[in-house]
Amino acid sequence: MPTFTSLDVTDVRFPTSRSLDGSDAMNKDPDYSAAYLELRTSDGESGASLVFTIGRGNDVQGEAIRALSHHVIGRDVEEVLADIGRAGAAMIEDSQLRWLGPEKGVMQMAIGAVVNALWDLRCMREGKPLWLLLAELSPEELVDLVDFRYLEDALTREEALEILERALPGRAARIAQIQDRGYPAYTTTPGWLGYSDEKMERLLREARDQGFEMVKLKVGGDLADDLRRFEITRRILGEDFLVAADANQRWGVAEAVAAMEALAPAHPYWIEEPTSPDDVLAHAEIRRRISPIKVATGEHVHNRIMFKQLLQAGAVDVVQIDATRVGGVHENLAILLLAAKYGVPVCPHAGGVGLCEMVQHLSMLDFIAISGTMDDRRIEYVDHLHEHFVEPAIIQEGHYLAPQLPGAGARMLPASIETHRFPDGPVWKELTR
Amino acid sequence: MPTFTSLDVTDVRFPTSRSLDGSDAMNKDPDYSAAYLELRTSDGESGASLVFTIGRGNDVQGEAIRALSHHVIGRDVEEVLADIGRAGAAMIEDSQLRWLGPEKGVMQMAIGAVVNALWDLRCMREGKPLWLLLAELSPEELVDLVDFRYLEDALTREEALEILERALPGRAARIAQIQDRGYPAYTTTPGWLGYSDEKMERLLREARDQGFEMVKLKVGGDLADDLRRFEITRRILGEDFLVAADANQRWGVAEAVAAMEALAPAHPYWIEEPTSPDDVLAHAEIRRRISPIKVATGEHVHNRIMFKQLLQAGAVDVVQIDATRVGGVHENLAILLLAAKYGVPVCPHAGGVGLCEMVQHLSMLDFIAISGTMDDRRIEYVDHLHEHFVEPAIIQEGHYLAPQLPGAGARMLPASIETHRFPDGPVWKELTR
């Protein structure tokens, strides 16, 4: 009987701050990074996953993942994979580690990474990409993965089952549709604050020509700057193109309302992260005051309990899940079910390192087995760092094509890991010479 | 000019799980621990502080503290100490570490630890205990320590100043009162789930005889058990004694309401942590449905933005700050000001390792310079592990006596640190032999 033998974590960092890729109002100089893990078994298999960070602290994230080793090492592989839901719950309930959250920050992301690595291994063994493996589970099997603690005032197990059962009839047709056409994407590639107007113009034209039907601009630095960049965008893409704005938590309520009133003539489609991701009540107030501009948030929303409240309070028009922020596939499944219950579309956050590769599986699952629709739903796409993955995300005519290889999407190329290992890989040795 | 030369972190753990001290419905086997730091200067001084954890993960917490080294090492001591507010803000705004929160979990606790160590050093240099040093700052100096980002829809800088100015006239008299009589305490020593009825009865009698006017019992394991323990408590302490209950996040809304309806005949004074600390809306709903039993929470509430919402939503009757959960003295000052604005009493969480020693300074500051009252306010006290501190908390007639030594309270005895160092100190070597 194979057992888990090691949980290897590598600190992988890309020196993106040199090019201002990924620069926004709060995160000025990110070095896109991954706390990368491989969970190895005694018969030579492995499950891979990662947590995305933006540089410093990637080592802390790695320590948090290592701190979960006792939950898997030495255990029977078949037994754990037969009930990944239980394995995830045991990590959440760890009676000592729980104090460091509970259910938030680096520990929750670490739990998510181990959960996702277990799913990656199960996908490898069953020879399926994650989206398809999950989309073929029964409603009961899916619901068994969800931790309903603290959710039942908004969503009970029975209601979740009902949502999944309602979507059962069309599953096969929707699988075919995903295989055929993929899932809609939007792009943030042109929108980073650090780019010159010329670079932005070129990237906007490319985005339109590549078939994207929506772009997103970073805002929240200087208002005059934001207005100019929106003007350029409207000049190039026209008045009807969907253009979202992303403030990356820059404002309080009054500042958000004032800024959106100023930007309203350029009719942004949504404002993303107008304020602190923790501030449910502020999001609700902002949404009330800037309607019809939509409010979106989620990439920093730390667990299902916060998403539940955003939905209960009518605080968001768009739920933005992230593949590595919460407790993995299970908690994202809970969030997808909550969004379906409240009829709010999910438009995942992506970009970074591996987030596109990972989160596409969840949107495809949402379409096939949960919400059953792609209306008003698009996955973010940023054209960075895909070449380091075994199966890079592929965009065609503004759509993510369905991944075909077995796995959950996070597996990186060994050479990429080796080259970008921090601080002793060749890329970093060269930079610090 | 002295500079900061090192940030030394030690993993200190006490094997408390052997005696079931500290056992509750969610934390069954805590090994009370401290990620202990000393921030040293080139002229041989140091500021000490700690983050309390309950065992596993204390090493992760230590790594998080070390990750902040670049914010202090090499910097001019006088310059940093002259504006600790700025030093704290710079750590919160760290453009890469911010991704790991923002403002939550181990990173926020780490920032709090460094902030608190800077205050400890400043206290040592000025020869004052923290409560007195802070209580002698001007309203402007205090307000300058607060980060008002995300707070201004509830509390502006001007309103905070007004609160502090209103309390100016009586400061000297209240300092004298604190020096004379101290600050009221309540005790959780008798209430842990793991104790036998006999041990509990003995500890309840001792609590009353020591002059405490309130005790707290852990609940949320087995309801019949909770009822029996409340019955014993009422038999020993009478009907008028204040007896609070603490569920340690065990329930959802419906379970909390049902449990409190069952416990109502024993008239618990408050129910603490009835549900997830993240769930503002659930606390509000529970409070509405179990009135007049009060709702208390805070020891796991991760920042000022969450406390703000608990107050805005009318979700709590009692705010429970914790000395090491949030971003240190500065963020706790923001929370004290928010509570004063909303007229809600603050009854700090304490116990653990060093929490009593640290948090008493903040309640004393609240009395002297912020709320100006002790009505309905008591600091938790648990009779554990005080002997390891340079200045242990002292209780007399149910009151915390005012600390007299210079410092912020967290400084431990070198021998205690050495003996309990994990995993290689003698206590742990003996246990794992």
Automatic annotation (TrEMBL), chains A, B:
Pfam families: MR_MLE_C, MR_MLE_N
Keyword Lyase applies: yes
Cofactor(s) listed in the protein's UniProt record: Mg(2+)
Record domain Mandelate racemase/muconate lactonizing enzyme C-terminal: where: 197-293
Keywords recorded for this protein, A-Z: Lyase, Magnesium, Metal-binding
Top-tier EC class: lyase
Xref: SUPFAM superfamilies: Enolase C-terminal domain-like, Enolase N-terminal domain-like
EC number: 4.2.1.68
Protein name: L-fuconate dehydratase
PANTHER family: ENOLASE SUPERFAMILY, MANDELATE RACEMASE, MITOCHONDRIAL ENOLASE SUPERFAMILY MEMBER 1
